[in-house]
Amino acid sequence: MTAIVATARALVGVRFRLHGRDPAHGVDCIGLVALALGRSAPGGYALRGGDPARVAAALAEAGLVPASADDLLPGDIVLMRPGAAQLHLGVWTPTGLIHADAALGRVVERPGPIPWEVIGSWRRLF
């Protein structure tokens, strides 16, 4: 198991909070990924909308490189489009996807394939 997966799994059960960055108070998908990567996270975004190129640039700045969404490895960061005007990030694991689920109100590990459109994926090479 990678350190990214282990850190993300430690956050399973943490409540969802838009712009959340602290597990004691809640996290959103960006907070989850930032904590899993050991990085700070950007703010100033809405729950809906977003620019995939801006997300890709932030992930590149965090030291990740593009990876094949058809060949995900544990610890890969996945950018998805769960709705027409929404972007969502998660961490791929050996069994599925860890993500901050606003509808369930917490961070969950969802087994099996990703149910949403995958826009891209990134991985840390070191």
In short:
The chain is of the alpha+beta class and 126 residues long. Helix content is 21%, strand content 33%.
User: Uncertain segments of ≥5 residues (pLDDT<50)?
Assistant: none
Approximate shape: globular
Q: How many strand elements? A: 8
Radius of gyration: 13 Å
Order of H and E elements? HEEHHEEEEEE
Beta-strand percent range:
25-35%
Task: Look at the structure and give the mean pLDDT.
Answer: 92
Q: What gap, in angstroms, lies between the N and C termini?
A: 14 Å
Summarize the helices and strands and which ones pair or pack:
Blueprint: H1 3-10, E1 21-22, E2 26-27, H2 29-37, H3 52-61, E3 64-67, E4 77-83, E5 86-92, E6 96-101, E7 106-111, E8 117-124
Antiparallel strand pairs: 1-2, 3-8, 4-5, 4-8, 5-6, 6-7
